[in-house]
Specification:
two-stranded antiparallel ribbon, 291 residues, six-stranded mixed beta sheet, alpha/beta
Length: 291
C-alpha cells in the first residue's frame, strides 16, 4: 500500500492521531480556538468517553470521533465526516442531544445548561436541497457554516447550542491567500496527505508540531499497521462513493447484503457491478456507515 509522508487526516486513525490523543491536545485546542470568537476561547479541555449511551439499553447510542469538555463546562463534539451520508444534518442534531440530556440533574434543578458545540469537518459538499429557494446572490457559496437557533427576525434565540460545519472541498484558497490561522488549519487538513515537506506558510510552532505528529515515519509498527488498515477502509469508502453506480443500485445492494440471502458474487452479478464494489459496501455496513 502506498503511504505518503504525512498521515491522511480523513482516516479514522489520522484524525484521532492529530486531535484525539492526550499528548497532542494542544493541536485540538488551537484548532477549536480558531473557530471561536475571542471572548469564547478556551484555555483547557478534557477528553471524555466518545461513546454515549441512551437512557435505556434499548435506546440508540452515539459514538463520537472526539468528545471533550472545557473547564467552564462547555461541551465539544468534533467529527470528521468522510463521505456524504443520508440525513447527515438530522444525525448531527440527534448527536447534539446527548450532552444536553447528560446535564440533567436529579431532584430540584432549574434546567440551566452548559454550552454545546458540534464541529464537523466534511470531506464532501452539502447538497443544495435545503437552499433551493435562495438565489446564489442571496446565499453565496461558502465553506464554513455557523448554525444557531434564530427567530423570524434573524435574531439569535438560543446561544448555548452551536453547529460549525466545514466543507473542505469548497475551501479553494491557495498558499498565498491564507490570511488567518483558521485558513491555515483548514488548508493543512485539506492538503496534509499531499505534502512532501512543510510549506513555509505553515512554519509556526503549532503547525511544526502538527506535522511532526502526522509524520508516518514516526509511527511504530503497531501504529503503522493500524494506519494502513484505516487508510484501506478510507480508500474502500472512496471507491464506493465515487463509483459511477447509481445510488438506487447501491441501496439495493445494501438491502441484499443485510438480508443475507444471496452470496456477494450473486449480488454483484444481479446488479451488474464488480465483486470489489460489493465487498467495499459490505465493509462500510460492518463499520456502521450507511450510504
Amino acid at each position: 500500500m502506498t503511504v505518503s509522508t504525512y498521515v491522511n487526516p480523513f482516516t479514522d486513525f489520522g484524525f484521532k492521531r492529530l486531535f484525539g490523543e492526550e499528548a497532542n491536545k494542544a493541536l485540538l485546542l488551537d484548532f477549536l480556538n480558531e473557530l471561536l470568537p475571542l471572548e469564547s476561547r478556551i484555555a483547557e479541555l478534557t477528553f471524555k468517553s466518545p461513546e454515549q449511551m441512551g437512557d435505556t439499553q434499548k435506546d440508540r447510542r452515539a459514538v463520537y470521533d472526539i468528545y471533550c469538555q472545557t473547564a467552564d463546562g462547555t461541551y465539544f463534539i468534533v467529527e470528521m465526516q468522510k463521505a456524504f451520508q443520508a440525513y447527515f444534518k438530522d444525525r448531527t442534531v440527534f448527536y447534539s442531544t446527548f450532552p444536553i440530556r447528560a446535564q440533567a440533574q436529579k431532584g430540584k434543578w432549574d434546567y440551566k445548561l452548559s454550552m454545546v458545540y458540534c464541529v464537523a469537518i466534511l470531506a464532501f459538499e452539502f447538497e443544495n436541497d435545503d437552499y433551493q429557494f435562495y438565489e446564489e446572490e442571496e446565499f453565496p457559496c461558502d465553506y464554513l457554516h455557523e448554525v444557531q437557533l434564530k427567530d423570524q427576525h434573524n435574531r439569535i434565540f438560543y446561544r448555548k447550542l452551536k453547529y460549525i460545519f466545514i466543507e473542505t472541498p469548497r475551501f479553494k484558497k491557495t498558499e498565498t491567500e491564507l490570511l488567518t490561522r483558521k485558513d491555515k488549519w483548514i488548508y493543512f487538513l485539506k492538503n496534509l496527505e499531499d505534502f512532501s515537506e512543510i510549506p513555509s506558510i505553515l512554519s509556526e510552532p503549532i503547525f511544526q508540531e502538527a506535522f511532526e505528529v502526522a509524520r508516518v515515519a514516526n509511527f511504530d509498527s503497531i501504529q503503522l499497521d493500524a494506519y494502513e488498515e484505516s487508510l484501506k477502509n478510507y480508500r474502500d469508502l472512496h471507491n464506493v462513493v465515487t463509483s459511477a453506480v447509481d445510488k438506487r443500485v447501491k441501496e439495493i445492494i445494501i438491502r441484499m447484503i443485510k438480508r443475507g440471502k444471496a452470496t456477494l458474487e450473486e449480488i454483484a452479478e444481479d446488479n451488474d457491478v464488480s465483486i470489489e464494489l460489493v465487498i467495499a459496501i459490505q465493509n462500510e455496513i460492518k463499520r456502521g456507515f450507511h450510504l
